[in-house]
User: What shape does this take?
Amino acid sequence: MPEYKIIDAHCDTVGFFCQETSNYDFLARNRFHHLDLPRLKESGVIMQFFALYISDEYKPVGSLAYCLRLLDSYYRTMQYCSDELQTIYTVTDLNNNLKNSKIAALLSVEGGEALEGELAVLRMLFRLGIRAIGLTWNQKNQLATGIGEDKPGEGLTDFGMQVIREMNRLGMVVDLAHINRQGFFDTLNISSDPVIVSHANARAVCDHPRNLADDQLRALRDIDGVIGMSCCPDFVDPAYATIDKLLDHFVHVAEVAGVEHLGIGADFDGIQEVIAGLEDVTGLPRLAEGLSQRGFSREEIDKITHKNFIRVLKKVLPV
Ligand SMILES: [Zn+2]
Assistant: This one.
C-alpha cells in the first residue's frame, strides 16, 4: 500500500482515450505519456480529476461536439475498469468511495467554450456527469478572459456570471486556472461556494502569468478554496525546475494562504516537459516525502495531499 493518499486535481489524459491512431491503453502500463490505471494505483492516488480539454482547433466552432466525443471516450474506457475506478457525482458517492478501495474520478471540462453560450448546455453537461469546469483556457471566451489575452478591466461576462450562479445551484466546482486577474476576482465576488485553481503555482516564487499573486492566494483562502500545485516546469522555474523548487511554492502558499488551501494539480499529459523525479504520476509521493523533509507534520501533509480537496468537494457537490 502506498504511504500517502493523493488527490490530483488535473490531468489531460482523456485526450488520448479517443485517438484511434495512438496505441495508448489506459488499462495497461504505458512507456509513454504520464498516467494510466496501473500507475495511478502504484502512486496512491485516491482521486483523479479528468479534464476534458477543448483543443484550439475546436474553438470557437465545434467545442461542444468535441467535448462530447471526449466524454464518450471516457465512459467507454471506464466500462473496462469499473472494479477499480469509480466516477463520483455526489457527496454520497464521495463518502462511499472513501470507504472502498476504488480510485475516484471526477469529470471536469477545461474551457467554457464547450457551453457554446448556453446555460442549457451547462445543465445537460451536469446531467452527463461533469462536476467541474475550468471557465477559460488561455483565450477569451463567452464566459471570461484567459490569461493569454489578458486586458485590464476585462473580467467575467454577463454570461459568465450566470454560469457561476448556475454552477453554484447545481453543485459544480468552479475552476479558475488560466483565468485572468480581473475574472478571478469577479468570480470570487459572486460565487457562493468555494472555488479551486486546479493547476497553477505561486507568482512570488516564479513570475509566470499563470501563477497566482499573494493577494489572489489570500482571496482564495477567504472563500475557503484550494490551489493545486502544478508540476509544469515553466510555472516552477523556467531556468531550472526541480522538486526542491516546487516545494518552495508549497511552502510559500502555506505561509501566505495557510496549509488548508493547498493541494496538488500536476497537469500530467498536459505538459510537454517534466521535472526530474516527477516524470509521471508515480512521482507524486515524492512531493509528500519532500514536504515531510521541509518540516510539515503528517496531519498537514494529509491536508495538502487529499483532505483539502475533499473538504471543498463536500461543500460544493450535490448531496
Ligand atoms: Zn491547463
Q: What stands out?
A: The longest strand covers residues 45-53.
